[in-house]
Design brief:
Layout lengths: L8 E6 L6 E3 L10 H8 L10 E6 L1 H8 L11 H11 L3 E3 H8 L3 E2 L6 E2 L6 E2 L2 E2 L9 E5 L3 E4 L2 E4 L3 E3 L5 E2 L36 E12 L4 E8 L6 E5 L2 E5 L9 E8 L6
Parallel strand pairs: 4-12
Antiparallel strand pairs: 1-2, 1-3, 5-8, 6-7, 9-18, 10-11, 13-14, 14-15, 14-18, 15-16, 16-17
Length: 268
C-alpha cells in the first residue's frame, strides 16, 4: 500500500456454507468474523477445529513482487507438520475397553434429576448399564459411523478383539451374593431381581466370523472373515472370491460386526 498498489490480495473463506465470503486484510483481526465461527463449528472430527483460507492476489501485483512463477511451493510451518503427523496416527483400543466404556457409571445432568420416593426432592443421580444375561451367540456391532453437525464421518479406529477366549465375566452384573443370584445393589423399597436357577455361567466366547466394511459414508463394500468349523482355518469371503487368511489378518480397521459363540454351547 505504501507503493500505491492498493489492495495486494483478498482473503476468501474456502469451504464455508455460503460462497465467496471475503475477509478484510486491512482489519487488524480479520479472523474475528461470524463466518469463521460458523466454519469452526462445522469443522468436524479429524483434528483440532480449523478453517481453510484462500488468498487471491492481484496478478500484476503478484508478478511484480514475486516474479512470474507458474507453480509456487509454499512451505508449511513446523507446527503444521507436527499437527498433521499427530492426527494421521490412528488410535487403537481393545474390545474390553469398549465394554468398560459402555458399562461405565455416568453422572446425570441436573436437568435429568429424578424425584426421590422418600423425600420427594429431585436428586442428581447416576446411571449405569450392565449386562444381565449372555446369549449363546453374541453379536457385537462396532460403531463405525457418526454424524457431527452437517458432516458424517466413518470411524477407522482399530479395535483389537480376541479370536479365542473373550471373557465377558467382568462386564456382567454382579451375582452370587448370599441368598441367591442378586443383580447389583438395590434400594430398600425395591425388590431385588434374581436370575433363573438354570442360567448358564459360561462367559468365554470364541470368534467365528467378522463382517468388514470398506469405503466411506457415501459408498462401500462388505466382506467377511469366517472360521471353518471343520478344519479350524480362517477364510476371506469377497463376493464370489474365497481364499484363506492368517489369524493375524482377521483383526483390522475395517471390522464392523463381530460374531462370537459361547465356548461350551451345544451346536445345533
Amino acid at each position: 500500500p505504501s507503493q500505491g498498489t492498493g489492495a495486494l490480495f483478498r482473503i476468501r473463506l474456502a469451504g464455508g456454507s455460503a460462497p465467496c465470503i471475503y475477509l478484510s486484510p486491512q482489519d487488524p483481526r480479520p479472523l474475528c468474523h461470524p463466518a469463521i465461527d460458523r466454519a469452526l463449528q462445522l469443522s468436524g472430527a479429524g483434528g483440532p477445529p480449523h478453517v481453510k483460507l484462500t488468498v487471491e492476489w492481484d496478478m500484476s501485483t503478484k508478478e511484480r513482487l514475486f516474479g512470474n512463477i507458474q507453480e509456487e511451493v509454499v512451505q508449511d510451518a513446523e507446527s503444521v507438520r507436527l499437527q498433521q503427523q499427530a492426527h494421521r496416527q490412528q488410535h487403537s483400543c481393545t474390545l474390553d475397553e469398549c465394554f468398560q466404556l459402555y458399562t461405565k457409571e455416568e453422572q446425570l445432568a441436573p436437568d435429568d434429576a429424578w424425584r426421590c420416593p422418600h423425600c420427594k426432592v429431585p436428586q442428581q443421580g447416576t446411571v449405569k448399564l450392565s449386562l444381565w444375561t449372555l446369549p449363546d451367540i453374541l453379536i457385537i456391532h462396532l460403531k463405525r459411523f457418526r454424524q457431527v453437525a452437517e458432516h458424517r464421518h466413518k470411524l477407522t479406529t482399530l479395535v483389537r478383539f480376541p479370536l479365542r477366549g473373550l471373557d465377558m465375566a467382568p462386564h456382567v452384573a454382579q451375582r452370587g451374593q448370599p441368598g441367591g443370584q442378586l443383580l447389583g445393589r438395590w434400594a430398600p423399597w425395591q425388590p431385588p431381581l434374581r436370575l433363573p436357577p438354570g442360567c448358564p455361567r459360561d462367559y468365554l466366547y470364541d470368534l467365528y466370523a467378522v463382517c468388514n466394511h470398506h469405503g466411506s459414508m457415501q459408498g462401500g463394500h462388505y466382506t467377511a472373515y469366517c472360521c471353518n468349523a471343520l478344519d479350524g482355518r480362517w477364510y476371506s469371503y469377497d463376493d464370489s472370491r474365497v481364499e484363506g487368511v492368517r489369524e493375524a489378518e482377521v483383526s483390522t480397521r475395517s471390522a464392523y460386526i463381530l460374531f462370537y459363540q459361547r465356548r461350551h454351547a451345544v451346536s445345533a
